[in-house]
Amino acid sequence: MTGNLVRRLWLPPLAAGLLLGVQVAPAAAQQELHIGIIAPVTGIFAQVGADMLNGFKMYLEQTNSNFAGIKVVPIIEDSQGKPDLAVTKAKKLILEDHVQIIVGGVLATEGYALAPVSTAEKTVYISSVTAADDLTQRQLGNYPYFVRTSWTSSQPNHPLGQWACDQGYKKVAAIAADYAFGYESLGGFQKAFEDCGGKIIQKIWPPIGTKDFGPYIPTIKSDADAVYSLMVGPMTLQFPKQLRQSGYTKPIIGGSVSYDEASLPFMGDEVIGDVSAEQYSAALQTPANQTFVKNYRAKYGKVPSYFSESNYTTALMIDDVMKEIGGKWPGSEAFIAKLLALKVDAPRGPVSLDDMRNPIQNIYIKKVEKTKLFGYDKPELWDVVVKTYPNVSQFWTYGKDAFLKQPVYSRDFPPCKYCE
Amino acid sequence: MTRPRSSVLLVVAVLAAVALIVPHTTSFAILIVTRVLAFSILVMSLDLLLGFTGLASLGQAAYLGVGAYLTAILAARYQIGLGYDFWLVIALGVIGGAALAAVFGLLALRATGVYFLMITLALGQCVWGLAYRWNSLTGGDNGINLPHRPKFGIDLADPVVFFYVVFGFFALSLLIMYTLVRSPFGRSLTGIRERELRMKILGYNTWLHKYLAFVIAGAFGGLSGVLWAHTAGIVSPDNVVLTTSVDALLMAVLGGSGTLVGGVIGAGVVLFIREYLSTLVHWWQYVLGGVYVLVILYLPGGLMSIPERVRQWRAAQSGASGASNFATMGR
Hints:
The complex is a heterodimer of chains A (420) and B (331).
Chain A: H1 2-21, E1 32-39, H2 46-62, E2 66-67, E3 70-78, H3 83-95, E4 101-104, H4 108-121, E5 124-127, E6 146-148, H5 157-166, E7 171-176, H6 180-195, E8 199-204, E9 226-230, H7 235-245, E10 252-255, E11 275-278, H8 287-300, H9 306-325, H10 332-340, E12 343-346, E13 349-353, E14 359-371, E15 380-392, H11 400-405
Parallel strand pairs in A: 1-3, 1-4, 4-5, 5-6, 7-8, 7-9, 9-10, 10-11
Antiparallel strand pairs in A: 2-3, 11-14, 12-13, 13-14, 14-15
Chain B: H1 4-21, H2 27-53, H3 61-78, H4 86-108, H5 113-133, H6 135-138, E1 144-145, E2 151-152, E3 154-155, H7 159-182, H8 184-194, H9 196-201, H10 206-232, E4 234-235, H11 242-255, H12 261-280, H13 284-298, H14 306-320, H15 326-330
Antiparallel strand pairs in B: 1-4, 2-3
Helix pairs in contact in B: 2-7, 2-10, 2-11, 2-12, 3-4, 3-5, 3-10, 4-10, 7-8, 8-10, 11-12, 12-13
């Protein structure tokens, strides 16, 4: 009995010791810059995660991971799209891998989860995707170590609203994914569109992840001149297909990621002619972008999406700061100060950061066309740029102070004055 | 549970080892173990239903959600629960979980078997729907950030202190639930699991027994939620989504239902693979899937049935060698 007990006792502590005693790599050496990248490698956002990582890695390979003499060590962690796991992984990156910078996060909720960690641990957090408006607007004060190199959800939607108005559309019916990203995108579109004299006559909120739009499509008002759609993930593929199959022939105006290159290669010809707005298009006719697209595609077999470009540019910006400083990690505050003063020519065009730490950048109105570009031999779907709004800030034409006085865009703001 | 005393000793020894070893590991390991312990309380509460009462619930995350959202809303909006009133929030979390279970129990316990599964699933999704859509209260999909961990004499922001606090609540929960399942009340729950009709005929109010078990499980779920909210400092609908309930159920089954400790092992294995192994290798999902498949194929009683299996195998071996084993087999 006693012997039996002893025999049974030794195993679990040994196992526990084995599990817990595993020590991760020793502290950062002097001449290394550790960058933690948090992206969804598994789960429903895995494609987006792959685009992000490929963009970042491509820049590292082009520079041989050498930023002004410092060796860059990227450490990739899988957030699995879960905010609390993103926090756990961020703590691992900071406390054990001693990263100086954290890059990444996809969903707004990951951004909101990671920003406080950066404050608590005094570690730079660069959001290369997460677009939640308030992180660089009403809540920025809480997050002194937070910088964004991507965009706010509403940023491309303000010019899109103006553009739709300029096309002569008077009434637009809107259908948008039912979460903060959807509210902020549609909010921006509605604000600019209605300020110019247009009317949003309807708002439909399908839950995120909707695959069957059958219950929603018949409710779209027939007197609308166009439909505004904001879809994410697999919804982007289903909505235009099902809407066109139902016989709808009026224009579709898509917010940002609705027609992003993350989904575009998987779409059918029914999306030809649909319009969207974003800070990047793979079809951008600049030498910088052409080189970027060709290199990226040769390497990863797919056209880059904004997710790829944004992370490539983030790496580029970190490199530029390191060059300016002269190849020595200057500490979080000094790094951020240098980053904020930076102006870069990215594949997406000129990028600089405003005093609320969000990029000022071109917004492109893009129309899906089937065409041959960059010497590729097959006609393919491309987001061809039809109009460029140069140097757009997150506050559009409203001015920072006036803009920040209004509440963050939500399901009820701006109110739907013309809905019946 | 052939030899309860040695089993209890073993559990106590392992817990003591965890309490002694873990604080000397890396801060990330401490965080993971803390998360495992906090989530284990939820898995054990589910085991109370699944393993001892025979009620497979697919909505257990709802109670974790109540505790977690209560903690987050009180802390972020009213600054309650960040000092000594942390204990108040613990009490509120327990009461909130129990209260929600008291309501849901009235609805869910009208059904049994797969219908019970479906009703608990639907009720759990109602809570998720509230968390997701009630933007003004819950922050919708963005969730709520907690300002910081409580501080009262001791500072829970210190990972080791927080670990010991969670460890204390975990050990206490385990003790209470263990006492509960070995009490006459617990025995009658097992009776209901085995044959409800017979228990009815014997004069037991089986509905009331199940209802009480359901409410108690809800209370522990609420406690688990309060602690869980403080592990990551963010509460979002992701905490109450169906997959969290499914996780809890799978962990209980993986470890071995009807053992309480099995749920802890299950939670440990799953969270270790998902949160620790995923930092080391990118094929962790295959490991997780492999563990599930192997356990279901070869260990239907969960990981906790391994000692029993070994004993049977040994008995078979010594039986083959000619020794008489009547005595051991009789136990």
